[in-house]
Amino acid sequence: MAMLFVGLLFIGGMVNGQEITIKEVFGGQQFYQNGKKLTMGQLVKTMEGNELAYNEIKKAQSTYTLGAIVSGAGGFMIGYPLGTALAGGDPNWVLAGIGAGLAVVSIPIAKKYNKQSQSAVKLYNEGLKKETGFVKPELYFGSTENGIGFRLYF
Questions:
Q1: The whole model's pTM is what?
Q2: Which of 13, 46, 52, 141 is the most buried (most CB within 10 A)?
């Protein structure tokens, strides 16, 4: 019985070691697997074997690219007139206003990317559990029907 329990915990550790985790950071998210940070390209490559997760992360990748283009253009359009003003020139404030509008538009794009990438990670991690047919066991100590003891849930 003890060997079975140790074996189950070992297998559960292997499955959890392959899972992808998300860390929320200022300005977005970071993805980790086995303690190593993944780039977007590595994330896409990792999910290739899971069709649902792969399709979702590809959508997220496209959304991320669109957001980067929109926010980059907005930042440039704001920064150029500001730089001109700081240098003593005649800034084009209309350009800065358009840039501010693009910056605002990039916010919902970033939120959409976050949802898509979180969904892809969730699908990927669920797929790992289905592939192994194993769900991480949980061990509890406390009262049982027969007194005090351990409970193992799968």
A1: 0.71
A2: 46
